[in-house]
UniProtKB/TrEMBL annotation:
It comes from the Bacteria. Residues 31-197 form the (+)RNA virus helicase C-terminal domain. It comes from Streptomyces fuscus. InterPro entries: (+)RNA_virus_helicase_core_dom, DNA_helicase_UvrD/REP, P-loop_NTPase. This is AAA family ATPase.
Length: 366
């Protein structure tokens, strides 16, 4: 096996990203951390291509189906002859290796102890594994991956742990072994300065990252009178910004479906899209995230995505939550940092939700 880094030219990477990628040996386990907008998903795809060039099967894994689709498209643009790389969800990867009858626990997730016991009997257990948004997978997954992969490289940000079965950076590193390398990627190449500053109100843990230099629109908190008012506002955003990708991130699939029906009747220039994790195929599963227009997505599927404009229309759905809750703050941290240029935080009702109180005055001062 080749142990030196293979000289593959990737002109779309920044110098900092190049240095991070080039500094990762092609052997061993590694954990790469970084804030939103630092390019972790792009680096994960490049890392997978580098590892594939060593001649071993390589797979790029994530927990989210929608992010898997996005990574698949990214890999298609990085294809190197003779070094194919696949993208899959961690769930489907396990089922392919252990079969549809892979043992599970009562919560519906996998029985990691049982799978580890079966791992020795599974043939071809030495591919390179690269994981994007690795904080969303449990320590049991990494115990299994350590046994069944020639190397494991994980890209993660523990400030974005939205799933119940998650791992901290320390847990991932410890589980993969004492020789696991650690690297950090810095910089924010996605968010405008105002958006990154708003995200800081919700971030939990970690050091404060430097704010981007690029400036954008001031974030807005907007009260909607009803669903029709929300629909008209999103329609106006799409009409005034015909080349923009507008992500509407909801906390209710029912709201998403109702909003989608109204947007379809609005006869937008670009057909709106809705992602449903329950769909097995078709228009609600196979989205085109590269074209302009409106995309409605549940917050649980927003990780790893980015849009020119992000609308969070239903902040009142979290009104009963503790404003200091780490889970709540992480959710908003992730949603806000999906935006490149503009963020709208919407609400309905008689009172501004507690977790966004005070932000109106802060926004006016920016």
């Amino acid at each position: 096996m080749t142990t030196a880094n293979t000289p593959v030219l990737h002109p779309d990477l920044t110098p900092v990203q190049h240095d991070c990628l080039d500094g990762l040996p092609l052997t061993g386990n590694h954990v790469v951390s970084g804030p939103p907008g630092s390019g972790k998903s792009l680096l994960a795809a490049h890392r997978a291509v580098h590892l594939a060039l060593t001649g071993h099967p390589t797979v790029l894994l994530t927990r989210s189906r929608l992010l898997r689709r996005l990574l698949h498209d990214t890999l298609n643009g990085l294809t190197v002859p003779g070094a194919p790389v696949g993208a899959a969800t961690a769930h489907s990867w396990i089922l392919r290796r252990f079969g549809r009858d892979a043992p599970r626990t009562e919560d519906g997730w996998f029985d990691w102890k049982a799978l580890i016991g079966e791992a020795a009997d599974i043939p071809d257990t030495d591919p390179h594994v690269v994981v994007d948004e690795g904080q969303d997978l449990p320590p049991g997954f990494y115990r299994l991956a350590r046994l069944t992969a020639a190397s494991v490289t994980v890209f993660a940000d523990e400030c974005q742990r939205l799933t119940e079965t998650n791992s901290t950076l320390a847990e991932i590193t410890e589980t993969l072994g004492r020789t696991t390398g650690r690297a950090e990627i810095t910089g924010n190449h996605r968010n405008a300065r105002q958006i990154a500053a708003l995200a800081e109100h919700f971030r939990t843990g970690g050091g404060r990252p430097d704010l981007p230099f690029r400036s954008g629109d001031r974030p807005v908190i907007r009260q909607y009178t009803d669903l029709q008012d929300l629909t008209e506002h999103i329609t106006a955003l799409a009409e005034h910004n015909p080349r923009h990708r507008i992500g509407v991130i909801v906390n209710s699939l029912r709201l998403g479906a109702d909003l989608m029906a109204r947007l379809e009747r609005a006869a937008l220039a670009q057909e709106p899209q809705l992602y449903s994790s329950a769909a097995t195929s078709g228009r609600y599963r196979d989205l085109d995230l590269t074209r302009p227009g409106v995309v409605v997505v549940h917050r649980a599927s927003a990780k790893g995505l980015d849009f020119d404009t992000v609308v969070i229309p239903d902040t009142e759905s979290d009104a009963a939550a503790d404003p200091s809750s780490a889970t709540l703050r992480m959710a908003y941290y992730v949603m806000v940092t999906r935006a490149r240029e503009r963020v709208v935080m919407g609400w309905q009702g008689c009172r501004l939700p507690r977790h966004v109180e005070g932000l109106e005055a802060w926004m006016r001062d920016q």
